[in-house]
Records
---
Amino acid sequence: MCGRYFLFELQAFVDAATKLAPPPVFEPSYNIAPSHHIPIFPNTEDRAGILAKWGLVPFWSKEPKVKYPTINARSETAHEKPSYRESLKKRRCLVPASGFYEWMKVDSGKQPYAIQMESREPFAFAGLWEVWHRGQEDELVTCTIMTTQPNPLVSRIHNRMPVVIHPDNYDEWLDPAEKTNDQLKHLFASFPAEEMMAYPVTRDVGSPANNHPGLIEPIQL
């Protein structure tokens, strides 16, 4: 699963990715966790950046929360799951990131690793978004991050990784038209390992209360 990531170059992402409207104000974060409100670019006509709560609440839910984790949607089965299948068809989004964290099991517990592009440029996860309503005024925008099989780099650390959408495929992923899983599944391949890097970081990242640039600095094991 992908349960923690960081984003400190949102404007650089917008500048590099054409056809995206400027996002709302978002302070750089080195420890984004579930339930945080995160910037996404939904597949609306204007592709205007918005903030969404991380943890998807299906439109049909009776309450603005669910009893099971919805921070990640497995790309292999999202089209079958009631929580995600309508969003996959109609409500896709980009979730910009500078990198993400995964934990490796070691003798002393779990060691976090930061994973970024080799170029250190920001990139985008494949996301799904949803709007939950209660009555006419109560509205909650939520999202989930899709995951896939890990590439050889990430597989040494964890058994899943986020789906990373290549910039050449942003237009296809953000097409407002309804899409089938067969039309989209080629986008769910794991991102090439040779274009990414991973390194150990402080275990302080385990607490969402910690949020500073030092969290992404490499450490010696």
---
Amino acid sequence: MNMKVLMISTDRKVFEDESGVRARIVQYGALVEELHVIVFSKKSSGFSAQKISDNVWLYPTNSINRWTYIFDAVKIGKRIKDIDLVTTQDPFETGFVGWCVVKATARAYGARLQLQIHTDFLSPYFIKDSTLNKVRVRIAKFLLPKADGVRVVSKRIADSIKSAGIKLKTGPQVLPIFVNVSAIREAPVNVSLNKLRQQFDTIILMVSRLEEEKNISLALSVLRKVVDKHPKTGLIILGEGSQREVLKKRAKNLNLENNVVFEGNNSNVISFFKTADIFLHTSNYEGYGMVLIEAALSDCLIVTTDVGIASEYFKDTESAHICGVLDEKCLATRTIKTIESKEFRNIFTLKAQNAVEEHIKEKTEEQYLARYRQLWEKCLKKS
């Protein structure tokens, strides 16, 4: 089945020649006759419309500001002819653009709409996060019943849609983010945390954007309790974000300056996983949680809040330590227990690896892309 697809995205990395995002879009293009991608972007970014492969085109919105993204994207979308399917990165702003384009061109060529969902938007913590998120949830509830297909990245999201009583034309299809298991397992250790072994007996790792919803502030409170019992415990935080200075100040106020290392961004993430003792994840909500997969496949024991695929893939106290969101006491207790029970770490990490492999159905990139196309085809077959 030949098809022409229009994708609405917010990921500006697609304009970077060597980015993984750009490579992935080219792969999606190979699945269809034509792929057109509209990307929310400001005019000041300097992006221009371009063709990046034989059948893939990019269109930046070149908006004056973020408030005109939707208007500008719809205007571009209406100009792209004979589209069979519009697929959007989320059921919020890009989803609204997709719906507007489908509605505006319905008489001309009757394109179908697929909404993709990568975050746990019905989590109470997502809703509390900001006024904008409250508006986004309302938009999603309006759009989802109108979509011809809904792809979600975890069972958690699919279940939350059903529990909320949102009536869809067809049930949500779960297709997780692709995981290259062998690439993670076979990745060499290029950067080692072992250089910190003289300073720390135990090294805890966090890999996260430094933003409020990731709740790294909670992790610092957990570390304070851990350090009280095990003073030579270090926390390495990999990532950047708007909360960096706030978190550094909090670490100082908790008298943890000597126990916390803000490492910033680093491309050798897997090396860090493979040389840390414990991976700590304190996020308030996640759609998927790729870092949990990476930690498991790197033999790094997991202590996490119950977000994303945590309780779907892992069993609490058997293959990971899973605590309720915001449960500081549980996170601290489990982390201390892990430090004091080194003999069980190998069993834990082995079970975590097995759990990941059992849940990943699309083992190869080819299988994953075939499944991706299949979901697009299903949208077109619906009456």
